[in-house]
Amino acid sequence: MRNQRSIFKNIDWVTISIYLALVFIGWISIYAAVYNEENSAIFDVSQRYGSQLIWMIFAFIIAFVILLLDGNFFTSFAIPIYGLLMLILVAVLLFGVTVNGATSWFEIGRVKIQPAEFAKFATVLALAKYLSMPNIRIKEFKTKVIATTIIAIPALLILMQNDTGSTLTYVAFIFLLYREGLSGNILFLGVLAILVFVLTLVFGATSMILFGFIIFLLLYAATKYDLKITVFTTLAIISFLIFNTYFEIKDSFIFFGITLILFSIFLFIFTNKKLKDKGSHYLGIFIFVVSCAYIYSIDFAFNKVLKEHQRTRITVLLGEEDQLIKQIKTLEFKMNEETFSQEQKLVIKTDLKTKKESLKELQQGNGWNIKQSLIAIGSGGFTGKGFLQGTQTKFNFVPEQSTDFIFCTIGEEWGFLGTSFVILLYMALFLRIIFIAEKQRSTFSRIYGYGVASILFIHFIVNIGMTIGLVPVIGIPLPFISYGGSSLWSFTILLFIFIKLDSERLFVLR
Which of 235, 264, 283, 448 is deepest in the core (most CB within 10 A)? Predict the structure, then answer.
């Protein structure tokens, strides 16, 4: 029989200490983000920092209760917990309230609960339960299908709630599956698909199809005639120059580098001796056709499926604002040219008006958010402006500065030193979780640990990426720091289940 006292003794207090540090930093940062002299009491529950303190107290109670439970509870009830959360996700579609365009909340009096946040730990439990079953191998097709289904069900239900940000976080599970034996080729194809997606948005579907056709011809020649790599590299450069001249691509060096990278990858694949048979040519044609379909689907989805605010988030990231500014300057220059007729100037004037309106809409939306975020972080300098001294924060230049853009407050008030300290805390947490996961005797515990690390890591990367303009603004919280009871509770449950499982590692035989 297990000794309950010894279980508490085996708890990883290093991980708990990091957790408490992040939660405390979050509370102080929320206070700084919404502070004003009229309502300065830090325990004022009418303000967000007061509400966050209540969420923190309940989070600590939840963590304590989890530590009191037997670890077998989570392995035994993993699937029922998953099923219950899926039913709740369906219920929120039918009976939930809409906040910021997403129907993903239950409102109980003054309290709002977002089930999508809790679905993450339920998905990790279900995935760990399934993959830890006897005779389950990730390399088998059936296993991949079932594991993908476990991940896809909550992701699709959340997407139906119009919560794109939370949906995208389910990409994190690719890291877990890779650790459990998923082929690296899947990761490679995923990265390649993202690269093609970005290039298609930048250069257009037609340009990408033409580029792909040129690459296909070169690869066919390489497999049929076995010519030297240097010859095909030269052909790639020539085709790039023709392509660039015809379509007037401005970022030549960037596109040239991408061209050579893609060319080298495909050349290696198609010149491989194992593929140098008649079947390889049909394979090449098939890949080209699928690629064309994928490229056109990107163009269709971006223009016909995505909503205006979603397109804006992507175009801001791709630098549309800078392009519009250059186009406006060019049109203004043409307006002053005497070589154009009155009719031509009328067309230019109409185009100029349209461009200026587009720029105004862009700057007032996510473009404005990112710009103000960068100003706030940059203004902090090396040591920051000091606690409660952030001007960008105090005058509300950055929207959602206590939730999605909480990192701006840290950057402005604590500078490079403060942000570096927070990032180092997260890095220490991730490494600690992975280190502990590798020590587990139980397959379930190991898989669950990697799920925890993956979810927290994707939130960390995306949230900070949003604030510095590297990732589209998709509205996901910074773990343990951003304001919100649902996110704090869900991350607490996610982490402390693993802490509990680890505390019983010595008692696990398998």
Answer: 448
- 161 inside domain: yes
Amino acid at 421: F
The strand pairing partners of 106, in sequence order, are 113
Q: Above pLDDT 70, what percent of the chain?
A: 64
Angle at 384 between CA 383 and CA 390, to 5 degrees: 170
Do 247 and 137 belong together in one domain? no
The number of domains in the chain is 3
Tell me the residue range of the domain where 354 lies. Answer: 318-364
Residues 10 and 29 in one domain: yes
CA atoms within a 13 Å half-sphere pointing along the CA-CB vector of 315: 21
**Looking at this protein, which amino acid is placed at residue 148?**
T
138 and 10 share one domain: yes
Q: Is residue 202 part of a domain?
A: yes
Owner of token pair 């209760």: 65
The whole-angstrom separation of Cα 57 and Cα 50 is 11
| CB contact at 8 A, 317 and 471 | yes
Rounded to an integer, the average pLDDT of 310-336 is 63
Residue 391 placed within a domain: yes
Q: Encode pLDDT of 126-166 as tens digits.
A: 999 999 998 888 888 888 899 999 999 999 999 888 887 88
**Token digits for 93?**
């579609």
- 20 has which bridge partners? none
Is 389 strand, coil or helix? Answer: coil
d(C-alpha 78, C-alpha 294), whole Å: 36
d(CA 98, CA 68) in angstroms, rounded, equals 36
CA distances from 299 to 42, 296, 323 (A): 49, 5, 19
Q: Are residues 77 and 222 in the same domain?
A: no
Report the C-alpha gap between 97 and 94 in whole angstroms: 9
Strands across the sheet with 102-108, in order?
A: 97-99, 102-108, 111-113
Is the domain of 455 the same as that of 493?
A: yes
Give the CA angle between residues 392, 395, 400 to the nearest 5°: 75
Distance separating alpha carbons of residues 493 and 448, to the nearest angstrom = 12
Identify the helix (H) or strand (E) that includes residue 99. Answer: strand 97-99
Burial class (CB in 10 A: 0-12, 13-18, 19+), 279: exposed
For residues 480-500, give the mean pLDDT.
93
DSSP letters, 100-115, are: TTEEEEEEETTEEE-H
- 3-state SS assignment for residue 395: coil
Distance CA 44, CA 29 (A): 15
Shared domain for 16 and 143, answered yes or no, is: yes
Whether residue 272 is found in the same domain as residue 335: no
What's the burial of 31, exposed, middle or buried (CB within 10 Å: 0-12/13-18/19+)?
buried
Same-domain pairing of 168 and 261: no
Residues with Cβ within 8 Å of 244's Cβ and at least 6 positions away in sequence, in order, are 252, 255, 256
